[in-house]
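Quick one, probably user error.
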């Protein structure tokens, strides 16, 4: 049997049904890379911290390491006096400890001497001979980080499927993770359509347009941790398209098609996807606007997915962001199956919608925290450069008025 969806289905149902039918997550190829090479990719396994960070108690300020009780109650009018015990040198473990009524000069980042549990900032002290005048009291732990306080030993640094990016790479580096396995899914992008020509073509033939979707999809996938190869353009000729389709699918784990939305071409594509080994064609259309003519198929035994996206650029990217990426995240078993940020924000002006399909409307984030819908047709390209994300209008919702909160999916 080809598949279980005979008509358009909701986006949420499609994602859930496909995940259950195909028993996601699936195993995936793994590559081991140097930390720097792994930036922008997704970890193939959970990364655990094998040592406490910081590995020693360290000072956050230039000042004097003390026992907090010895400085308690000190003020500019009633200072306390401590004996200077010594000096902590940067990058060296002090060979002395702090006893009662003693203080040791310590730089920012210096190792706290044994016995000390706080640091009095340098500007709150005055050196007078062998004495340290303390003009401000401190609490236990003030101006220091204890050993293992920030990242305890055994804490997870990165979840399986998590991205190595500016937010996570610092923790990996400080934990000494110099190499790590990353997900090595092979994703191929194939644009279709007799009217589509390569970007290198300077003189456009009548009725033709340069390929946009292939490059948009490659960039979008890369932004969210999935490396994809742009495989060029296939024409709509039945036999040639079928040959190219099977050739590309044989060499990848996920084949993404864009274009071919006209009835005849879409029907041919639908028949090809339905002819794949079990389960074949799973989704024959989505109840979303823009993006209805979306096809999703799979060969479960070979662990291969095919997603055929609409040809109009805005439709293509909308489905890629709201369906393709969440499907990929489910396929790899990521804890978070959402890309970007989903939030609720007030509209700066009315947004007309209709009940029936789930609608996604480009929007611009304002300085006051509101969002403004951007008028755009499914064939628009430039709107993506202006938009901060998409407003999601539920299937049962009509016009959303200015000032009302709307569900917003931000790229960030």
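Nope, works fine. Designed sequence:
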């Amino acid at each position: 049997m080809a598949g279980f969806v005979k008509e358009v289905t909701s986006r949420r149902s499609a994602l859930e049904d496909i995940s259950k039918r195909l028993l996601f997550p699936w195993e995936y190829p793994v590559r081991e890379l140097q930390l720097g090479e792994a930036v922008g990719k997704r970890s193939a396994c959970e990364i655990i911290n094998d040592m406490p960070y910081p590995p020693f108690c360290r000072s956050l300020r230039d000042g004097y390491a003390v026992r907090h009780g010895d400085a308690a109650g000190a003020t500019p009018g009633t200072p306390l006096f401590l004996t200077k015990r010594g000096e902590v040198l940067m990058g060296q473990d002090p060979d002395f400890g702090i006893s009662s009524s003693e203080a040791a000069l310590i730089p920012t980042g210096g190792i706290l001497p044994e016995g000390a549990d706080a640091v009095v900032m340098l500007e709150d002290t005055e050196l007078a001979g062998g004495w340290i005048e303390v003009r401000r009291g401190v609490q236990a732990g003030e101006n220091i980080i204890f050993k293992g306080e920030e990242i305890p030993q055994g804490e997870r640094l990165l979840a399986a499927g998590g991205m190595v990016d500016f937010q996570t790479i610092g923790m990996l580096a400080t934990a000494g993770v110099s190499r790590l396995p990353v997900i090595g899914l092979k994703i191929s992008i194939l644009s279709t359509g007799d009217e589509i020509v390569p970007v290198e073509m300077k003189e456009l033939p009548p009725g033709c347009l340069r390929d946009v979707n292939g490059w948009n999809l490659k960039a979008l996938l890369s932004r969210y941790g999935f490396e994809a190869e742009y495989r060029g353009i296939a024409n709509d000729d039945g036999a040639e398209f079928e040959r190219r389709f099977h050739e590309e699918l044989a060499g990848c784990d996920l084949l993404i098609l864009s274009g071919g939305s006209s009835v005849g071409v879409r029907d041919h594509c639908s028949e090809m996807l339905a002819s794949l080994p079990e389960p074949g064609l799973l989704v024959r259309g989505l109840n979303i606007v823009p993006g209805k003519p979306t096809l999703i198929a799979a060969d479960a035994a070979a662990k291969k997915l095919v997603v055929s996206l609409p040809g109009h650029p805005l439709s293509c990217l909308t489905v890629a962001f709201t369906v393709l990426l969440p499907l990929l995240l489910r396929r790899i078993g990521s804890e978070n199956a959402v890309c970007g940020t989903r939030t609720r924000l007030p509209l700066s002006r009315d947004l007309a919608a209709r009940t029936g399909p789930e609608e996604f409307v480009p929007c611009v984030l304002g300085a006051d925290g509101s969002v403004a819908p951007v008028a755009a047709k499914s064939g628009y390209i430039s709107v993506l450069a202006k938009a901060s994300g998409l407003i999601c209008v539920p299937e049962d919702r009509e016009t959303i008025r200015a000032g009302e909160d709307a569900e917003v999916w931000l790229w960030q």
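The longest helix spans residues 313-332.
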